[in-house]
Amino acid sequence: MRAVTSETFAARYPPPADPPIDLRPIVRLADFETPARGRLHPAAWSYYARGTGDEHSMRNAEATWSRYLLVPRVLVDVEAIDLRTSVLGREVALPVGIAPAALHGLAHLDGECATARAAGSAGVLQVVSTVASRTMEEITAGCTRCTALVPALRPA
Q1: Which of 58, 105, 113, 114 places its Cα 20 to 30 Å from the Cα of 20?
Q2: Is residue 149 domain-resident?
Q3: Which pLDDT does position 40 carry in this prediction?
Q4: Are residues 61 and 101 in the same domain?
Q5: 26 inside domain
């Protein structure tokens, strides 16, 4: 874990193009915290790691998700499983999507553009935050296989 130093935010923003992390030890979402903290500027880490206000919603969401368990199935033929479905009239590879999260550019130089490419590769839905670090035009320009990019609603 990187110690908090007098390093300025500009020195780590935009974030460097660090090599990918080794995903083999990652089993659950919390396992991403240590490598993320080590790569992000302390201000960016603080932004991503905290909830808003008194953080009741964040703690409630963590408690709710912790109640879900994966039930392993052994000796079951999984060769022909098809999870495709449609969302908003567009076919997706599985009923999972990337929720709107603000300022992806704090974590990666390509920001939401990289997220869109990943969503397109996986064939899943991405909802773009109203507080994105890139415009919808920039996000869609580099995405040759965007499954469905849905801008979150902005107030009129």
Answers
A1: 58
A2: yes
A3: 87
A4: no
A5: yes
Query: 132: how many CB neighbours lie within 10 A of its CB?
Result: 22
Residues 32 and 7 in one domain: yes
How many domains does the chain divide into? Answer: 2
What pTM was estimated for this model as a whole? 0.72
Q: What is the pLDDT of residues 74-126, one digit of tens each?
A: 888 888 989 999 887 888 898 888 888 889 988 888 889 999 988 888 888 88
DSSP the chain: -PPP-S--GGGGSSPP-PPPP--TT--SGGGGHHHHHHHS-HHHHHHHH--STT-HHHHHHHHHHHT-------S---TT----EEETTEEESSS-EEPP-S-GGGT-TTHHHHHHHHHHHHT-EEEE-TT-SS-HHHHHHT-TT-S-EEEPPPP-
The range of the structural domain enclosing residue 131 comes to 81-156
